[in-house]
Design brief:
The protein has about 300 residues and is an all-alpha fold. The protein is about 80% helix and about 0% strand.
Length: about 300
């Protein structure tokens, strides 16, 4: 395939993608470190799926991102002429390219359903055991792996066009539907509740639900251009030849799905900010409420 763009157009996008992948890995590793360090406040059962989300996002930045760079630069740019030697090597690269993306999206579905259960059945939710969350994580990975195995099988039997029609678009559509319906029901439940609870646990759960809602919405907005691009390719092959800078912007936004979560956590979760500051600065041990209410400039001076 002939390159669609010159090296002068490709190199800036290459630099952007490399920086983005590094930022994804670094920020999510910091997120995991904060959650592990703040065991008492953050490492609760309700945050297990959030920790798992950060782990998956690290894999996106460390594996899927570099593979995305390799494929985009190989297809669209004259920067290198690297070709994989075997067909299976090519298939496996596409498998790992999409595996962690879909695992991340499936994990967002699990978070939305978990928050739905916490909102409608708060008493039962308090007694959900740890093995339930472990089982949810196993199911998340099984769904993503089965989807990728089905993709390889369809490639082998020559049904490449079926992949977009039955594996990509329906998966995104179902994910969007489940996440949106879950949070719409949560908002309706919270707004229409006649007996609001004001104790600390209830406030914490509602705060966590709001954070999960923002994370999910931002992630869906990042994934939406990529979904529209896949749908465009399925409807018309001419979309594959779309303007180079638009296509690269879609790739950058798709990867940004794994970049925004740590930023949202830092803005929305006081306990996370506390752990983040203690991770890099020697902040004195203050009560959690007092530390959360201190101005950021004062904490940085500590």
């Amino acid at each position: 395939m002939e390159p669609f763009s010159s090296a002068s157009e490709c190199i800036p996008w290459l630099v952007v993608l490399i920086i983005e992948c590094l930022a994804i890995v670094i920020l999510n590793i910091i997120t995991i470190a904060v959650f592990v360090k703040k065991k008492r406040h953050l490492q609760r059962r309700s945050t297990y799926l959030i920790i798992h989300q950060a782990i998956v996002d690290v894999l996106v930045g460390a594996v899927s991102g570099p593979l995305q760079i390799e494929i985009q630069m190989e297809w669209l740019c004259p920067l290198w002429n690297y070709r994989r030697n075997t067909l299976w090597s090519h298939r496996l690269s596409f498998l790992f390219l999409h595996l962690f993306y879909f695992t991340s999206l499936t994990n967002l579905i699990a978070i939305s359903l978990e928050r739905l259960h916490a909102t409608f059945c708060p008493f039962r939710h308090r007694f959900v055991r740890k093995w339930v969350y472990r089982a949810m994580i196993i199911v998340i990975w099984l769904i993503a792996i089965v989807r990728e195995a089905a993709q390889i099988f369809l490639w082998e039997i020559g049904y490449f066009e079926v992949i977009n029609a039955y594996l990509y678009l329906p998966f995104y559509a179902v994910s969007l539907f489940v996440i949106c319906v879950s949070y719409i029901l949560i908002v309706i439940k919270v707004r229409c509740s006649r007996h609001p609870q004001f104790h600390s646990r209830s406030k914490r759960e509602r705060k966590l639900t709001g954070t999960a809602l923002i994370v999910s919405l931002v992630s869906l907005l990042c994934l939406l251009p990529g979904t529209m691009y896949v749908a465009c390719i399925h409807l018309s092959s001419s979309c594959f030849m779309m303007y180079f800078h638009i296509r690269m912007a879609v790739v950058v936004l798709f990867l940004a799905n794994s970049l925004v979560n740590p930023i949202i956590y830092a803005l929305r979760m006081p306990g996370f900010r506390e752990g983040l500051l203690q991770l890099f600065y020697r902040v004195p041990d203050l009560p959690r409420i007092a530390l959360a209410n201190l101005p950021l400039r004062n904490l940085l001076r500590a």
